[in-house]
Amino acid sequence: MPDLARHPVVRRLVATALEEDLGRGDVTTGAALPADLQATATIEAQEPCVVAGLFLAPLVWGRLDPALVVEPPLRDEGAEVPRGAALVRVRGRAAPILAGERVLLNLLQHCCGVATLTRRFVRAVEGTRAAIVDTRKTLPGLRLLEKHAVHAGGGVNHRFGLDDGILVKTTHVALGGGTAAVVARVRARAPTALRVQVECRSRSEVEAALAAGADALLLDNQSPDEAHALVAFVGGRVPVELSGGITLANVAAYAASGADRISIGALTHSAPAVALHLCIEARG
Predict the structure, then answer these.
(1) 182-208, pLDDT tens digit by residue?
(2) Which domains, from first to last, does the chain contain?
(3) Residues with a known catalytic role
(4) Percent helix, strand, coil in the chain (nearest 5)?
(5) pTM of whole model > 0.85?
(6) Under 8 Å CB-to-CB from 25, ≥6 apart: which residues?
(7) Residue 20 CB-density burial (10 A; 0-12 exposed, 13-18 middle, 19+ buried)
Protein backbone atom coordinates (compact mmCIF):
# COMPACT_ATOMS: atom_id res chain seq x y z
CA MET A 1 0.00 0.00 0.00
CA PRO A 2 1.49 3.40 -0.99
CA ASP A 3 1.92 6.29 1.45
CA LEU A 4 -1.57 7.71 1.08
CA ALA A 5 -0.80 10.93 2.95
CA ARG A 6 1.49 11.85 0.05
CA HIS A 7 -0.44 10.19 -2.76
CA PRO A 8 -1.58 12.65 -5.47
CA VAL A 9 -4.93 10.86 -5.90
CA VAL A 10 -5.75 11.31 -2.22
CA ARG A 11 -4.60 14.93 -2.23
CA ARG A 12 -6.79 15.67 -5.26
CA LEU A 13 -9.71 13.96 -3.57
CA VAL A 14 -9.34 16.15 -0.47
CA ALA A 15 -9.05 19.29 -2.60
CA THR A 16 -12.15 18.38 -4.61
CA ALA A 17 -14.17 17.52 -1.51
CA LEU A 18 -13.30 20.82 0.16
CA GLU A 19 -14.08 22.79 -2.98
CA GLU A 20 -17.44 21.04 -3.24
CA ASP A 21 -18.38 21.74 0.38
CA LEU A 22 -16.97 25.23 0.87
CA GLY A 23 -17.94 26.88 -2.40
CA ARG A 24 -17.34 30.60 -1.83
CA GLY A 25 -16.71 30.05 1.90
CA ASP A 26 -18.34 29.11 5.22
CA VAL A 27 -20.76 32.01 5.49
CA THR A 28 -22.30 30.82 8.76
CA THR A 29 -19.02 30.60 10.68
CA GLY A 30 -17.76 33.81 9.08
CA ALA A 31 -20.80 35.71 10.28
CA ALA A 32 -21.18 34.04 13.68
CA LEU A 33 -17.64 33.93 15.08
CA PRO A 34 -14.65 36.27 15.36
CA ALA A 35 -12.10 35.43 12.69
CA ASP A 36 -9.30 35.01 15.25
CA LEU A 37 -11.23 32.92 17.79
CA GLN A 38 -8.98 30.07 19.00
CA ALA A 39 -10.30 26.59 19.73
CA THR A 40 -9.35 23.00 20.45
CA ALA A 41 -11.29 20.18 18.80
CA THR A 42 -11.30 16.42 19.15
CA ILE A 43 -12.90 13.79 16.93
CA GLU A 44 -14.43 11.04 19.06
CA ALA A 45 -15.98 7.68 18.21
CA GLN A 46 -19.67 7.48 19.04
CA GLU A 47 -19.69 3.70 18.76
CA PRO A 48 -17.11 0.89 18.93
CA CYS A 49 -15.20 0.69 15.66
CA VAL A 50 -11.96 -0.12 13.86
CA VAL A 51 -9.90 2.96 13.07
CA ALA A 52 -8.88 3.85 9.52
CA GLY A 53 -7.95 7.03 7.68
CA LEU A 54 -6.68 9.28 10.49
CA PHE A 55 -3.87 10.51 8.21
CA LEU A 56 -6.57 12.52 6.43
CA ALA A 57 -6.90 15.01 9.30
CA PRO A 58 -3.73 17.03 8.55
CA LEU A 59 -4.49 16.86 4.82
CA VAL A 60 -7.93 18.43 5.27
CA TRP A 61 -7.17 20.96 7.99
CA GLY A 62 -3.71 21.78 6.68
CA ARG A 63 -5.17 22.73 3.33
CA LEU A 64 -7.53 25.19 5.02
CA ASP A 65 -4.99 26.70 7.42
CA PRO A 66 -1.36 25.52 7.57
CA ALA A 67 -1.09 27.16 11.00
CA LEU A 68 -3.51 24.67 12.56
CA VAL A 69 -1.74 22.20 14.84
CA VAL A 70 -2.98 18.68 14.18
CA GLU A 71 -1.59 16.29 16.76
CA PRO A 72 -0.31 12.87 15.66
CA PRO A 73 -3.17 10.33 15.50
CA LEU A 74 -4.29 9.30 18.97
CA ARG A 75 -4.94 5.73 17.77
CA ASP A 76 -3.17 3.37 15.39
CA GLU A 77 -4.69 2.42 12.05
CA GLY A 78 -6.54 -0.86 12.52
CA ALA A 79 -7.00 -0.37 16.28
CA GLU A 80 -10.30 -1.39 17.82
CA VAL A 81 -11.63 1.44 19.97
CA PRO A 82 -14.63 1.78 22.31
CA ARG A 83 -17.38 4.37 22.22
CA GLY A 84 -16.01 7.72 23.36
CA ALA A 85 -12.44 7.08 22.22
CA ALA A 86 -10.55 10.18 21.06
CA LEU A 87 -9.08 9.73 17.57
CA VAL A 88 -7.76 13.11 16.40
CA ARG A 89 -7.07 16.45 18.09
CA VAL A 90 -6.44 19.86 16.50
CA ARG A 91 -5.96 23.37 17.83
CA GLY A 92 -5.86 26.80 16.25
CA ARG A 93 -8.38 29.14 14.68
CA ALA A 94 -11.94 27.88 15.06
CA ALA A 95 -13.07 28.98 11.60
CA PRO A 96 -10.92 26.59 9.50
CA ILE A 97 -11.50 23.78 12.01
CA LEU A 98 -15.25 24.10 11.48
CA ALA A 99 -14.86 24.60 7.73
CA GLY A 100 -13.14 21.23 7.38
CA GLU A 101 -15.31 19.35 9.87
CA ARG A 102 -17.87 17.83 7.49
CA VAL A 103 -15.43 16.75 4.78
CA LEU A 104 -13.12 15.11 7.31
CA LEU A 105 -15.93 13.39 9.21
CA ASN A 106 -17.50 12.11 5.97
CA LEU A 107 -14.23 10.52 4.89
CA LEU A 108 -13.32 9.15 8.33
CA GLN A 109 -16.79 7.74 9.00
CA HIS A 110 -16.66 5.84 5.72
CA CYS A 111 -13.09 4.58 6.19
CA CYS A 112 -13.79 3.42 9.74
CA GLY A 113 -17.01 1.80 8.53
CA VAL A 114 -15.15 -0.19 5.86
CA ALA A 115 -12.48 -1.27 8.36
CA THR A 116 -15.08 -2.25 10.97
CA LEU A 117 -17.13 -4.34 8.54
CA THR A 118 -13.98 -6.01 7.22
CA ARG A 119 -12.91 -6.95 10.76
CA ARG A 120 -16.29 -8.61 11.33
CA PHE A 121 -15.84 -10.75 8.23
CA VAL A 122 -12.26 -11.60 9.20
CA ARG A 123 -13.40 -12.67 12.66
CA ALA A 124 -16.18 -14.79 11.16
CA VAL A 125 -13.69 -16.97 9.22
CA GLU A 126 -11.05 -17.36 11.94
CA GLY A 127 -9.73 -20.90 12.10
CA THR A 128 -10.12 -21.47 8.35
CA ARG A 129 -7.63 -20.92 5.54
CA ALA A 130 -9.80 -18.30 3.86
CA ALA A 131 -8.60 -14.71 3.51
CA ILE A 132 -11.20 -11.95 3.20
CA VAL A 133 -10.53 -10.05 -0.03
CA ASP A 134 -11.88 -6.79 -1.45
CA THR A 135 -12.97 -6.12 -5.04
CA ARG A 136 -13.14 -3.27 -7.57
CA LYS A 137 -16.69 -2.51 -6.36
CA THR A 138 -15.53 0.73 -4.81
CA LEU A 139 -17.04 4.22 -4.82
CA PRO A 140 -15.48 6.20 -7.70
CA GLY A 141 -12.55 8.26 -6.49
CA LEU A 142 -12.36 6.51 -3.12
CA ARG A 143 -10.68 3.25 -4.11
CA LEU A 144 -7.32 3.90 -2.46
CA LEU A 145 -8.94 4.99 0.80
CA GLU A 146 -11.37 2.07 0.82
CA LYS A 147 -8.70 -0.50 0.10
CA HIS A 148 -6.53 1.03 2.83
CA ALA A 149 -9.48 0.63 5.20
CA VAL A 150 -9.94 -3.01 4.17
CA HIS A 151 -6.28 -3.63 4.95
CA ALA A 152 -6.64 -1.86 8.31
CA GLY A 153 -9.56 -4.15 9.09
CA GLY A 154 -7.48 -7.26 8.42
CA GLY A 155 -8.58 -7.96 4.87
CA VAL A 156 -6.46 -8.53 1.76
CA ASN A 157 -6.37 -6.16 -1.20
CA HIS A 158 -7.12 -7.64 -4.59
CA ARG A 159 -6.78 -5.73 -7.87
CA PHE A 160 -6.38 -1.96 -7.52
CA GLY A 161 -7.39 -1.62 -11.15
CA LEU A 162 -7.71 -3.40 -14.47
CA ASP A 163 -4.00 -2.95 -15.09
CA ASP A 164 -2.58 -5.06 -12.26
CA GLY A 165 -4.30 -8.41 -12.51
CA ILE A 166 -5.90 -10.78 -15.02
CA LEU A 167 -9.39 -12.06 -14.36
CA VAL A 168 -10.96 -13.88 -17.29
CA LYS A 169 -14.69 -13.52 -16.68
CA THR A 170 -17.54 -15.43 -18.25
CA THR A 171 -18.14 -12.43 -20.51
CA HIS A 172 -14.61 -12.74 -21.92
CA VAL A 173 -15.15 -16.45 -22.49
CA ALA A 174 -18.49 -15.91 -24.23
CA LEU A 175 -17.11 -13.19 -26.50
CA GLY A 176 -13.69 -14.74 -27.09
CA GLY A 177 -14.50 -18.21 -28.38
CA GLY A 178 -14.36 -20.32 -25.21
CA THR A 179 -12.11 -20.79 -22.21
CA ALA A 180 -9.22 -22.49 -23.98
CA ALA A 181 -9.04 -19.87 -26.73
CA VAL A 182 -9.25 -16.91 -24.33
CA VAL A 183 -6.67 -18.25 -21.88
CA ALA A 184 -4.29 -19.07 -24.73
CA ARG A 185 -4.73 -15.55 -26.11
CA VAL A 186 -4.11 -14.02 -22.68
CA ARG A 187 -0.95 -16.09 -22.23
CA ALA A 188 0.36 -14.82 -25.55
CA ARG A 189 -0.49 -11.15 -25.08
CA ALA A 190 -0.53 -10.25 -21.38
CA PRO A 191 2.47 -9.54 -19.12
CA THR A 192 3.96 -12.86 -18.04
CA ALA A 193 4.29 -11.74 -14.41
CA LEU A 194 0.51 -11.64 -13.95
CA ARG A 195 -1.26 -14.82 -12.98
CA VAL A 196 -4.34 -15.82 -14.96
CA GLN A 197 -7.48 -16.25 -12.87
CA VAL A 198 -10.63 -17.62 -14.52
CA GLU A 199 -14.20 -17.11 -13.33
CA CYS A 200 -16.28 -20.30 -13.24
CA ARG A 201 -19.90 -21.04 -12.40
CA SER A 202 -20.10 -24.81 -12.90
CA ARG A 203 -17.99 -27.97 -12.78
CA SER A 204 -17.70 -28.02 -16.57
CA GLU A 205 -16.31 -24.48 -16.53
CA VAL A 206 -13.86 -25.46 -13.78
CA GLU A 207 -12.70 -28.42 -15.85
CA ALA A 208 -12.24 -26.18 -18.90
CA ALA A 209 -10.28 -23.59 -16.91
CA LEU A 210 -7.97 -26.19 -15.39
CA ALA A 211 -7.42 -27.81 -18.78
CA ALA A 212 -6.56 -24.41 -20.25
CA GLY A 213 -3.88 -23.88 -17.59
CA ALA A 214 -5.54 -21.31 -15.31
CA ASP A 215 -3.36 -20.22 -12.37
CA ALA A 216 -6.37 -19.60 -10.09
CA LEU A 217 -10.14 -19.92 -10.12
CA LEU A 218 -12.95 -17.61 -9.06
CA LEU A 219 -16.11 -19.57 -8.25
CA ASP A 220 -19.01 -17.17 -8.53
CA ASN A 221 -22.53 -17.39 -7.10
CA GLN A 222 -22.29 -20.87 -5.65
CA SER A 223 -24.24 -22.15 -2.67
CA PRO A 224 -22.12 -23.30 0.27
CA ASP A 225 -22.71 -26.94 -0.72
CA GLU A 226 -21.81 -26.25 -4.35
CA ALA A 227 -18.68 -24.41 -3.23
CA HIS A 228 -17.65 -27.37 -1.04
CA ALA A 229 -18.05 -29.76 -3.96
CA LEU A 230 -16.11 -27.63 -6.45
CA VAL A 231 -13.28 -26.85 -4.04
CA ALA A 232 -12.98 -30.57 -3.32
CA PHE A 233 -12.90 -31.28 -7.06
CA VAL A 234 -10.10 -28.75 -7.61
CA GLY A 235 -8.24 -30.52 -4.83
CA GLY A 236 -5.62 -27.83 -4.28
CA ARG A 237 -4.34 -27.86 -7.85
CA VAL A 238 -4.76 -24.05 -7.99
CA PRO A 239 -5.93 -21.43 -5.48
CA VAL A 240 -9.69 -20.97 -5.31
CA GLU A 241 -11.60 -17.78 -4.57
CA LEU A 242 -15.33 -17.61 -3.80
CA SER A 243 -17.61 -14.66 -4.48
CA GLY A 244 -21.25 -13.72 -4.86
CA GLY A 245 -24.03 -13.67 -2.27
CA ILE A 246 -21.68 -13.99 0.70
CA THR A 247 -22.75 -12.26 3.92
CA LEU A 248 -21.76 -12.22 7.57
CA ALA A 249 -24.47 -14.80 8.18
CA ASN A 250 -23.09 -17.37 5.73
CA VAL A 251 -19.39 -16.53 5.26
CA ALA A 252 -18.29 -19.16 7.80
CA ALA A 253 -20.10 -21.85 5.81
CA TYR A 254 -18.30 -20.76 2.64
CA ALA A 255 -14.95 -20.60 4.42
CA ALA A 256 -15.44 -24.17 5.67
CA SER A 257 -15.21 -25.31 2.03
CA GLY A 258 -11.43 -24.90 2.18
CA ALA A 259 -11.34 -22.01 -0.31
CA ASP A 260 -8.25 -19.82 -0.20
CA ARG A 261 -9.98 -16.47 -0.60
CA ILE A 262 -13.45 -15.01 -0.23
CA SER A 263 -14.08 -11.73 -2.06
CA ILE A 264 -16.84 -9.45 -0.86
CA GLY A 265 -17.91 -6.30 -2.68
CA ALA A 266 -20.00 -5.16 0.27
CA LEU A 267 -16.83 -4.37 2.23
CA THR A 268 -16.48 -1.19 0.19
CA HIS A 269 -19.79 -0.44 -1.50
CA SER A 270 -22.14 -1.16 1.42
CA ALA A 271 -20.24 -0.63 4.68
CA PRO A 272 -22.32 1.39 7.18
CA ALA A 273 -20.67 4.65 8.23
CA VAL A 274 -19.32 4.73 11.77
CA ALA A 275 -20.72 7.51 13.98
CA LEU A 276 -17.99 10.05 14.77
CA HIS A 277 -18.36 13.46 16.44
CA LEU A 278 -16.31 16.66 16.58
CA CYS A 279 -16.14 18.12 20.08
CA ILE A 280 -14.87 21.73 20.04
CA GLU A 281 -14.33 24.37 22.70
CA ALA A 282 -12.96 27.90 22.65
CA ARG A 283 -9.62 28.59 24.31
CA GLY A 284 -7.97 31.80 25.41
Answers:
(1) 999 998 898 888 899 999 999 999 999
(2) 8-121+271-282 (3.90.1170.20), 127-269 (3.20.20.70)
(3) 102, 137, 169, 199, 220
(4) 40, 20, 40
(5) yes
(6) 99
(7) exposed
